[in-house]
Design goal:
Rossmann fold; alpha/beta; two-stranded parallel ribbon; single chain
Length: 195
């Protein structure tokens, strides 16, 4: 929903209207960029030469229905963290959703000034958590932003095929996750998770 709202806002700009570009067209281009493992929004902005970019609006975000249950179960066995390309209000949003208590390490691009797939964010998470890469598991929906850099650092990786992530396919072994799941609940069935 957040992406469609962003596409609608972009399509409403004078520049998009002058080129007769619809929200549907923009959404298809985002999907295409994602399938090619390219930056989703920035690729679209560059393709059409937009000089203005619609803002990402957090108010249209939602949690998957199994989020709280899975986090509660996993937090009993593991120290959980977040490595994300996010705005500075990430912790506030986690509190609003009542899931902040589950995370002991939160690494946001807004706090560091660089973005995934930059491996420095992943290294910062390891340093802050005191965890070695071989004992860390990265769960992410993007092969390019999540799985590739975590693989290169030696993490166990899990590709969660939700959102645009479900259309991404590994282009080489570097992008190949250790495991792939279709939703959060399937994380609980992975061999390193106790039942």
């Amino acid at each position: 929903m957040v992406w469609m709202e962003r596409c609608k806002e972009q399509a409403a700009t004078l520049q998009a209207q002058s080129m007769n570009i619809s929200a549907h067209t923009l959404m298809l281009e985002i999907q295409k960029a994602s399938s090619l493992l390219k930056p989703q929004w920035n690729s679209v902005i560059e393709k059409f030469g937009f000089t203005q970019s619609a803002k990402y609006k957090n108010e249209f975000e939602f949690l998957y229905v199994d989020t709280r249950t899975v986090l509660r179960i996993l937090s009993k066995q593991f120290r959980l963290g977040i490595i994300a390309n996010q705005n500075s209000d990430l912790i506030e949003r986690l509190r609003k959703w009542e899931i902040d208590e589950y995370f002991s390490t939160i690494i946001s691009s807004a706090d560091y000034g660089f973005y995934k797939p930059d491996k420095r964010l992943f290294s910062a998470a390891l340093e802050q958590s005191g965890c070695s890469a071989c004992n860390a598991v990265m769960v992410g929906d993007r092969l390019d932003n999540d799985i590739l850099p975590a693989n290169e650092l030696g993490f166990i990786t899990v590709h969660i095929k939700q959102g645009f992530g479900k259309i991404q396919v590994a282009q080489s072994t570097n992008y190949q996750p250790t495991y792939a799941v279709n939703n959060l609940t399937e994380l609980l069935q992975l061999p390193f998770v106790s039942s």
